[in-house]
Every structure is written in C-alpha cells, then in structure tokens.
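Continuing the batch. This is chain 6 of the set; chains 1 through 5 are on the previous pages. Same settings as before, nothing changed between runs. Recording input and output for traceability.
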Amino acid sequence: MYEYIEEKGEDGPFFIFTTDFSLTYIVSFKKMGTMNYPLDNLFSLDFLEENGNKRRTDSKVSSTILHIILEFIKQNPSCVLHYLCDIEGGKQIFRARLFSKWFSIADTGTWNKLDISLAAVENYQISFLYDSGIYEPELIESEIILTMDSLESDKG
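Output for chain 6:
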C-alpha cells in the first residue's frame, strides 16, 4: 500500500498518492446534492490517475484505493457511496467486475453493494455501497432504484 495524503475539497475529501512509477492517483468522495432519506448522505466515489496513465502490474494501487474507501466508510458509517464505472474504451463492465472483486475481498462487515446497469445510458455500471446495520436493505435498494428510474426517464 502507498502512503497518501488527505485534502479537504469543496464538496468532500480527496486523497492523493504517488506510485513507485511516478503516477499520481486521486481518490475523491463528493457529497451529492440534497436528496431525501435514505439518500440524504450520498457521496460519489471517484478515482483516477491525474494524467490518465495506468500501469497494470502495480497491485499497490488497488490496495491503496481500497484502504482509502474502507477508512472513509469507517469514519462516515451513515454515508451511502455510489461509484459510476468510467465508460472510456467500452470497459465499464470490466471495471465493474474489478470493483466487485475489491469489495468481495475486503472485510466490509455489514456493508452491502447494489449493482445497477443502465442500458439506456451507454451501459453505465453503477454500484451503491451502504451499511445494512443502519439502512434497511429493502428500503434503501427500492429508493435507489426509484431514483435511478426517475433520472433515466428524465433523460429520455
């Protein structure tokens, strides 16, 4: 795992680390607009290499990003995270599988993941993370689906 620093952004915290290969990654948690319960504490998770460069063989990148995510949810247990897979290169399904793999190997306790695919919007793959010890899964998942359906029909 790499050392990282935390900065305070206008919409939420972001974390920066530099790899052994001089690549700089940013992991951000952006507080989303006002929504009703249970999505009133929704954060958008994003991570990227600041110049768009990648190195496939650096396993410390994924372990660092995963560590940052786990620390964020530990410090913000009532948050709901959503991660939208980048569609660049048509690899969003691969990215969604990789994110699912990270989630499956992590000790997330009572945290659940809900995956949604929006076929009408270029096959967007979206994952939502929430603590089932705080939020009733049926309630939050139905609210997420209703919200996504509403957003999708607004674009149609």
